[in-house]
Amino acid sequence: MGRNFDVFEKHADAYGMATYKLNDKMTLLGGIRLSNTNTKVRGYSVIDDVLTPVENTKNYLAVLPMIHLKYTLNDKTNLRFAATRTFSRPNFGDLTPGGTYIEADNKFKGGNPNLNPTYSLNFDLMGEYYFSNVGILSGGVFYKSITDPIFQDSFISNYNGINGVQFTAPNNGNAAWLGGVELGINKRFDFLPGFLQYFGVQLNATFMTSEMEKPSGRKVALPYQAKELYNAQLFFEKKVSMQDWLTITKENMRWNMLKMTSMILITANTATLTSEDLTSLQNI
User: What is the pTM of this model?
Assistant: First the structure.
């Protein structure tokens, strides 16, 4: 029964945004979002060896400002800076007020209905260079200052009079940060001959480091956070003129009509078969 629970969550949001061109080279975009969350969790918890219904309610307002600045160096090169505040709500599965006690292992695995949302103050600086043909080369640095990160905590405590029980439950860390570098390129092979010129490649790589302080004061890397990320894509892209598109569409319609006609003829011929005809076929 410890994992049986209900979560009721309501959101109300309001936001505004404005763009202002400072001069021919600089554009400023600013905005703010207000997000109110009301969460009610109902479940069961064992108190003094009795399975007891419990209810927890949490209400919070997230104020999320953001600012983006674009500086145009020339027709092919841009610099971008962004400062934003974002947040994420706890996962529903982490909010259960109960849990499961495994007597053989003397372990208890449960949830935490008192989890706070995680807030992050983000700073990004990126440069972009656009190729003469379609494509872009980009690189940048980023830094995130994180409040109340959620992680799986483990500690020893008592459970219903049993000593030395190992508890595992989600908890909020004190503070954390994440920083890194990202590089990317999107390039068509327009320098290759013939059919190969319609192929292209998209590559990006991100290198990160992080640190989080647990409630005990111990500092560790952010959970579930990789140190390196790589992505590679090979794509094919060819522009089709209106005349070519009409030709392809016409041929497809003609092929569909031929298939439809064949189906009608087959259906008509099948419909003329009688039981006598089938008997004759069997005697052949």
Answer: 0.77
